């Protein structure tokens, strides 16, 4: 048996069009959405990724301001740039791109991104709001997984969903989004023991660990839907996920490819979030009734 490949491309195209429609409306109102991406590394794969966001933003009619501070940027400089962008009315969305320079921590810095511009859900306030069901931007990758499940009509309510990885950017927010949809969630991590103990009976398995070949055909069953969030760059420059594609394809019901799966949808959602943020910000500029 061979699993169905759940490509992210058709969904990404739909989301990109939604972002473009909203961006065009805003532009007609004189408020073209602008995304700022703060970078402080000379890592070539990061710059490649940032350029891909820039190209996608251009296609969607969204302005993209790359703020490249170089690998020597200090925490102080990064913090003040994030505060300035948060206060800048011409910027609607902000991403702080990792990796950061050695010794600079992400946690304190992301708190400087204004929640209304936090289009990748990095500020702990956004995660807190998600946890209690208040409006907030979810990290685009976490939302991408949910959107892919919706797009392919894969229900999660009352089903057994295993999320491998518990980071604040993927595993935790994704678990919250799935819980909101009434899934029965198990979150695995590096200390949860043999994965097959959890994955063998799962309806849906989401892998977000950053470990090549972590999930194999031996971990899944013929009814498993497998979503591969992992992105690992091999020595030859090729991109692979966390799933051993050849063996999982032979056993599972469906699998998202890498590349062309979750990552593709994530980029489109960053743009949709920017357009949505710009729309909200334009509303808050309209003065309310007096008295
Ligand atoms: P991270 O912060 O390094 O977290 C990795 C998580 O995986 C941790 O919770 C870790 O457990 C767990 N883990 C590591 N080894 C494991 C193992 N052998 N068994 C079970 N769990 C294990 O990574 P992240 O930022 O969440 O990213 C995860 C992956 O997703 C990476 O490959 C990243 O590049 C990719 N990613 C992709 C996108 C996209 O758009 N496609 C976006 C963001 C991230 P502990 O907590 O116990 O250490």
Characterize the structure shown.
With 291 residues, this protein is an alpha/beta fold. It has two domains: 30-122 and 264-282, Rossmann fold, CATH 3.40.50; 140-261, 3-Layer(aba) Sandwich (Rossmann fold). Helix content is 40%, strand content 14%. The protein contains ten helices and eleven strands. It has helices spanning 9-28, 44-59, 75-87, 106-110, 124-131, 140-151, 171-180, 196-199, 245-249, 262-285; strands at 4-5, 34-39, 63-68, 93-96, 160-164, 184-188, 204-207, 225-228, 232-233, 239-240, 254-255. The strands form three sheets. It has a six-stranded parallel β-sheet with strand order 1-11-8-7-5-6. A hairpin with a 5-residue loop joins strand 9 (232-233) and strand 10 (239-240). Helix 1 packs parallel to helix 10 (262-285) and helix 6 packs across helix 10. The longest helix has 24 residues, at 262-285. The radius of gyration is 19 Å and the shape is globular. Bound molecules: NADP nicotinamide-adenine-dinucleotide phosphate. NADP nicotinamide-adenine-dinucleotide phosphate is lined by residues 141, 164-167, 169-171, 188-191, 208-211, 214, 229-232, 262-263, 266. Its EC number is 1.5.1.5, 3.5.4.9. Pfam families: THF_DHG_CYH, THF_DHG_CYH_C. It catalyses: (6R)-5,10-methylene-5,6,7,8-tetrahydrofolate + NADP(+) = (6R)-5,10-methenyltetrahydrofolate + NADPH; (6R)-5,10-methenyltetrahydrofolate + H2O = (6R)-10-formyltetrahydrofolate + H(+). Residues 139-281 form the Tetrahydrofolate dehydrogenase/cyclohydrolase NAD(P)-binding domain. Residues 6-120 form the Tetrahydrofolate dehydrogenase/cyclohydrolase catalytic domain.
């Amino acid at each position: 048996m061979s699993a169905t490949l759940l490509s992210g491309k058709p969904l990404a195209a739909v989301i990109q069009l939604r972002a473009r429609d909203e961006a065009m409306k805003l532009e007609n109102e004189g408020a073209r959405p602008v995304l700022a991406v703060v970078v402080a590394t000379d890592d070539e794969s990061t710059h490649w990724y940032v350029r891909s966001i820039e190209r996608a933003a251009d296609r969607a009619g969204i302005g993209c301001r790359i703020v490249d501070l170089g690998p020597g940027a200090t925490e102080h400089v990064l913090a003040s740039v994030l505060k300035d962008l948060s206060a800048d009315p011409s910027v609607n969305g902000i991403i702080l791109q990792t990796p950061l320079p050695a010794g600079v921590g992400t946690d304190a810095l992301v708190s400087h991104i204004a929640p209304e511009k936090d289009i990748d859900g990095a500020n702990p306030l956004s995660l807190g709001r998600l946890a209690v069901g208040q409006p907030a931007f979810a990290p685009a990758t976490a939302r991408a997984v949910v959107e892919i499940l919706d797009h392919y009509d894969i229900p999660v309510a009352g089903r057994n969903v295993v999320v491998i990885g518990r980071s604040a950017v993927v595993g935790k927010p994704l678990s919250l989004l799935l819980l909101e949809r009434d899934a029965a969630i198990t979150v695995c991590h590096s200390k949860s023991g043999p994965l097959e103990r959890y994955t063998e009976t799962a309806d849906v398995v989401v892998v977000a660990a950053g470990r090549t070949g972590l999930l194999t055909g031996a971990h899944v069953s013929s009814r498993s839907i497998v979503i591969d969030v992992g992105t690992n760059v091999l020595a030859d420059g090729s991109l692979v996920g966390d799933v051993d594609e050849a063996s999982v394809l032979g056993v599972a019901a469906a699998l998202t490819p890498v590349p062309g799966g979750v990552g593709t949808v994530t980029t489109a959602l960053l743009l949709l979030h920017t357009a949505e943020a710009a729309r909200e910000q334009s509303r808050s500029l309209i003065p309310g009734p007096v008295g």
